[in-house]
Amino acid sequence: MENRESRATPVGGSNIRVLVENGEYWLNNKGDLAILNVTVRRIAERWPNAAIGVLTDRSSLLKAYEPNAEPIRYQRGGDWPRRRGWGGLAGRFGPEAAGPLLRGWEAAAAAPASVVRRARRVLLRGGEDDGTNGESDARTTNSERLLLSRDGGRLPNAIDGASLVLAIGGGYLTDIDRFQTERTLDLLEYATNHRIPTAMVGQGIGPIHDHGVLEHAARVLPRVDFIALREGLRGPELLHSLGVLPERVVVTGDDAVELGYSTRRRDLGTDIGVCLRVAEYSPVGDEMQKVLGRVIRDVAAESDAGLVPLIVSEHDSEDRRSTMPLLAGFPDVVPPLGRFASARSLSRRIGRCRIIVTGAYHVAVFALSQGIPVVGLSTSRYYDDKFEGLAAMFDAGLELVRLDGEDFDDRLRRAMRSTWLRAPELRAGLLGRAVNQIEASRAAFDRAAQLVKGDITTRSNSNPGPTWPPTSST
Question: In the chain, where are the structural domains located?
Fold first, then answer.
C-alpha cells in the first residue's frame, strides 16, 4: 500500500482530526445513523481527544444524536466549528426530545435563508435563477469541484486540516444517488491529491452503469488507501474492474451489525415486524401494496402474532406512508416509534419479533444481527443486490421475494410461514455470523486508523470481541 504521510502530527489523539463522509446529510435514516453511531464511538474510543467532523446539513440534530461529533456544513464553507452553539444543548437532551423543537426552528429559519441564497444565485448568473437549492449545480466545472470553499470551490474547508478522510458505510455509491456519489468521489480525490490518508468502510458499492460515474470512480478509487465492503457478491468484482488492487479491499459486513447485535434479546420474540419502502428506486404499485398487506395480516392472524411497524427512513415520511396502511384494520398493532427515535430504539423494537418482512435493507441488518430471520421484498436490481449481498454474509435466514409475477402473494405467504417455523433453528447460526462480521468490521476500522501518522491507541485492547451472553433479557 502506498505510504502517505499526514500533515497532522497527532500526539495521543489531541491533534487528530477525522473528517467523516456520512452520505446522508439530513439524518433521516436510522440505518445510516446506526453506522454513524458505531463509527463515532470507535473513533472516540481510539483517540479520546480527537476532533470528529461529520458532514451534515443539520448541525444541531447531529449533536443531539452524536454529542462527540462536530458538524461540518458544506453550505457554510465546511469549516471546523469554533463554538458549540445550540448543538451542545441538543446533545444534552437527545434526539427524541430535541428533534421536534429543532425541526420547527430549522423550518422557520430555512425560508429567509433560501431567499438570500436564491437572490445571490440570480446576481451571480446575471438575472437567471436556475431553480436549484444551491446544493447541486450541473454547471459547476471540474476545477471548481476540486477546490475548497475558501478558494471558490465546493469542497469543505475542513478537509485541508484532516488527519484522515473516512467515508463510512452506506449504499450511496451508485447510479441511483449520482449527486452524492460524485460529491464523495470529489472529496476523496482532493484528499488523495493532497496526500491526506483516505479509507472507506462498510461500503455497499453499485450498481454503477453510468459512464461518467464509472470514469470518475476509476480515477479515484484505486488511489484510496483502504476499502472495506459490506458484501462480497458484487462489490469486489466492481472494484477490480475499476482498477482497485485486491490487497486494498476486504469484505467485513455492515458496520450496523454491531449495534443490532448489542440489542439482541435472550429469547426469540413473538411478533411480525413490517417495513415497506416505496420510492423511485423501489417501486411498489397500489394493487401490489393491497395484496401485500392482506397476506401479512393473514399470516399474522394464523400465527397469533402482533404486527410491529418498523420505520427506518423518515425522508418525506416514506416508510410511514407505505408501511402503516398495510397494518390497517389488524387488531394487534404496536404503535410506531417517533420520527426522532434513535437507531438503537428501532433495533430494540425489532428484537420483539420472531420474523421480519421488509423492503428496507437496514431493518434486515438489525434483525439478522439479533438472530431474527427475514423475508426481503424487492422490485429492483438495486434491492436485489442489497438483499442478496446481505443474505450471503449471513449464509441463511434471509429469503428474497420479488414482488412481481402473478403468484407473488403465494410466494410471500409460503416464505413467511416457512421463516416463522424455522426461526428457532436459524437463531444460533445468525448470531454466530454476526459476531464474525463485527470482528471483521473492527479489524477494518483498526486498519483504517493506522493510516494516521502517529496513531497511538490508548486502550489496552483496541479490538475487544463482542459481548456474550446477550446484553438484553427483555
Answer: 17-257, 262-433
User: In 154-177, which positions are buried (b, 16+ CB within 10 angstroms) versus exposed (e)?
Assistant: bbbbbbbbbbbbbbbbbbbbbebb
Tell me: the pLDDT tens digits for 53-71?
999 999 999 999 999 999 9
Indicate the helix (H) or strand (E) that contains 201.
strand 198-205
Residue bearing cell 446575471: 126
Beta-bridge mates of residue 51: 17
Q: Residues 39, 41, 42, 48: what is their CA dihedral angle, to the nearest 10 degrees?
A: 130
- Mean pLDDT for 463-473 is 46
Measured between its terminal Cα atoms, the distance across the chain in Å is 46
Query: Class of the 262-433 domain?
Result: alpha beta
Sorted by sequence, the CB contacts under 8 Å of residue 66 that are 6+ apart come out as 36, 37, 40, 54, 91
**Fold for domain 17-257?**
Rossmann fold (3.40.50)
Q: What is the pTM of this model?
A: 0.89
The pLDDT tens digits of the residues spanning 194-213 come to: 999 999 999 999 999 999 99
Say yes or no: do domains 17-257 and 262-433 share a fold.
Answer: yes
Q: How far apart are CA 77 and CA 156, in angstroms?
A: 6
